[in-house]
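Example 376, ligand nickel (II) ion.
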Amino acid sequence: MTEQELRAFFEDLHRHPELGLEEHRTTEKIKQALAAAGVPMLDTGLETGVIAEIRGGRPGRVIGLRCDIDALPIQEETGLPYASCEPGKMHACGHDFHTACMLGAALLLWERRETLAGTVKIVFQPAEELAIDAGGKRVRLTGLLDDCAEFYGIHTYPQFEAGTIGIKAGPVMAAPDHFIMTIRGRGAHAAQPQKGVDPIPAMAALIMSLQTIVSRRVNPFANAVLTVAHVQAGSVYNVIPETALLEGTVRTLDPAVRQEIKTRLREMAEGTAAAYGCTLEYSYLDGPDAVINDAALCEAAKKVALDMGFRVDRQEDTMGGEDFSEYLKICPGVFIRIGTGGGYPAHHPRFRVDQNALWPAAGYFAALAAERAAER
Ligand code: NI
């Protein structure tokens, strides 16, 4: 495959974004491109997503490469000639770039398979954007990756221009959890509050008290975010509603801090609802774990990048979430940021990537995987 062909593959994916677990066309396109070159694929048993496997001609270790293939429910506003043809759907997180990049890496590794020491498994993961029950876990549970010694993941990075790679040891993405609460009172006429149980003051009190969990309960040297992002109660000015809904997210890097917040959140919600004479329906949905990059492997990944002429910078800290952590339950690894410029952040309707970053990134992941597979 040439650079031009890889760009065309990327643009085609960009035109036809598919949401999590619906990536049938995308899956078909990946399979066609791999099959056309003769690259073997493993039978995942999953409806979408692909795992390619390249066995080298010499002995070595098994290295995993991972990209995600799903898009977002966003209406594209880039005005690009290859903008999304699907109303309300867009590759606004660069997963089309990830997919094309790892396809390129797979084809490059396939070309050099005779001299390759070890095996490289390339994961085209579905449904990364589904916060709960996302695709990484489904792929991990196939067991097809259990023999991997190291895993490397890719993400586009608008903060760096093409030619720069972001590598940072330690935590780079948070564990994004989701809580949903319904405070149940008893509806009444707004003029006769004594005849009902108003859930709105309970909700208001709870929103304010929740702010003290991070500020008063969590060690100031730890990192945590608790955001209430969605509230809903009532629909007219003169009726006390039956229920009030409150929904948000908890972001942490450390499992102990995560558990502490979980405990306090529930305690505070139940206590506050009861104090106002209300009952509580509560659910807390665990997202994927935090992504922790292995320090020694970061050095190795950095060295390959520098040797190939990339600039290497430290990525900015973020409390965003990513299910690349699923693969880090199997073995250590590094989540790597590829500078793609473009001027807009991920998930923005004008998000775009600089395609000049694509071909070099494919070469980089191929070189990194080949070098790590040969490592003893
Ligand atoms: Ni993403």
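Summary: The chain has a mean pLDDT of 97.
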